[in-house]
Design goal:
alpha+beta; seven-stranded antiparallel β-sheet; about 25% helix; 3 helices; about 150 residues
């Protein structure tokens, strides 16, 4: 079954502060809904926290490890990735877009599409939306704390 989520948050931080956190896989457990970065299942991570297209980032949440491949970067505007290994979804693609607000700060939109088995989808869809809302809110708040 096809599924999707589309969540947003606003931050008083500039897009550059949000962008730095998105690029740095090591920062995600501090602000996101993941417990840890699994380095031995990741590939091509940047030692200076500026992952590039092609980097594979593996994250553990509870006992489950999933990994994603960075597919597109447009600095301070677009961060895109797709699943590399996920036991619950297939064909997962996500995009994080940053839009500067006229009064300052940034609007963050995180959206994704995926396929899930019919027996998994009814449970996965609402939980994934809640999780991704925690991710985008955590990102917005972490960027503000970094100022």
């Amino acid at each position: 079954m096809k599924g999707s989520y589309d969540v947003t948050a606003e931050s008083e931080a500039p897009a550059s502060a949000v962008w730095s956190l998105l690029l740095d896989a090591h920062s995600w457990p501090r602000w996101g809904a993941v417990d840890a970065l699994v380095q031995d299942r990741s590939e091509n991570l940047s030692p200076n926290g500026r992952d590039e297209v092609g980097a594979v980032r593996a994250f553990r949440t509870g006992e489950v490890v999933t990994s994603e491949r960075v597919t597109h970067l447009r600095p301070c505007e677009l961060f895109a990735y797709e699943d590399s290994d996920n036991p619950f979804m297939e064909n997962y693609r996500a995009r994080v877009t940053l839009e500067e607000k006229s009064a300052g700060g940034v609007r963050i939109r995180w959206r994704g599409d995926y396929d899930a088995a019919p027996d998994v989808h009814p449970l996965l869809a609402p939980e994934l939306t809640r999780t991704m809302q925690r991710m985008v809110t955590g990102l917005a708040e972490a960027a503000e704390r970094a100022l």
